[in-house]
Amino acid sequence: MNFDIIALDLDGTLLNESHQLTPGTREAVREAAQRGAEIVLCTGRGPAQTIPILEELGLAGTIITHNGAATVDAGTKEVIHQFTIDPDKLKPFVEYCLYHGVHYDVSTAFELYIETITEEAEKMYGYFQATPIWRKPGTELPPDLVKFTLFGSIEAMDAVQRDWESWSADLKWIRSGELFIDVQHPHANKGQALEKLALIRGVEPGRIMAIGNYYNDIGMLTYAGLGIAMDNSPDEVKAAAKAVTLSNEEEGVRKALLDYAW
């Protein structure tokens, strides 16, 4: 085995466009684990939407969630490390969403909170098997927040992105998917979280493979000794990687593992 840790993004990478794990990809990931690599799922999802994928792979262990803001032991549900947000610094983002009618939610490591919902957002939560907790509008935000997420059409998220490009804020935002923008602690990203886990494990970057497909994957692709972008990635993500594999519709993760892992 050429790598001690293999970090895998989920949506657009490990999962196909139907958000399913194909048999060929599942078997290749299992084989990598059997050969001695620690498989670490690194995703923008929360633990509740990530652990079922780990179980479908027949694996257990550590997961990096919320774009690196919370690293969790999937078995014990213990938070190993997290980057929390000062609620006061979220106020301008909340005000923007309320003024422009943009749907948003806030997350701790394990919980997802909403104040309102749209028909489209309700479908989205159902699709990802997420169960939001309702909170009263105007009340104080929960403690230990790790992520503030906007959801809407591509056009709506493009408009938010244009507006926010000129902002000067204490928090960072990143386009984590065509329909999503995440606001987080400035140091929270998959690369930082993967580095902290590698230090705990005593693993050098050269012994790490990372595979991803979107802007929120760039941190881990550049940190890993071998960062691999999916063919369905934007050009900027491909440019940050050391190699490009097939798309998620063509079992690109399986192809990358067969080509490089052993």
Automatic annotation (TrEMBL):
Protein name: Hydrolase
GO cellular component annotations of the record: cytosol
GO molecular function: magnesium ion binding; phosphatase activity
UniProt-listed Pfam families: Hydrolase_3
NCBIfam families given in the database record: Cof-subfamily (TIGR00099), HAD-SF-IIB (TIGR01484)
InterPro entries linked to this entry: Cof, HAD-like_sf, HAD-SF_hydro_IIB, HAD_sf
Keyword field contains Oxidoreductase: no
Keyword terms of this UniProt record: Hydrolase
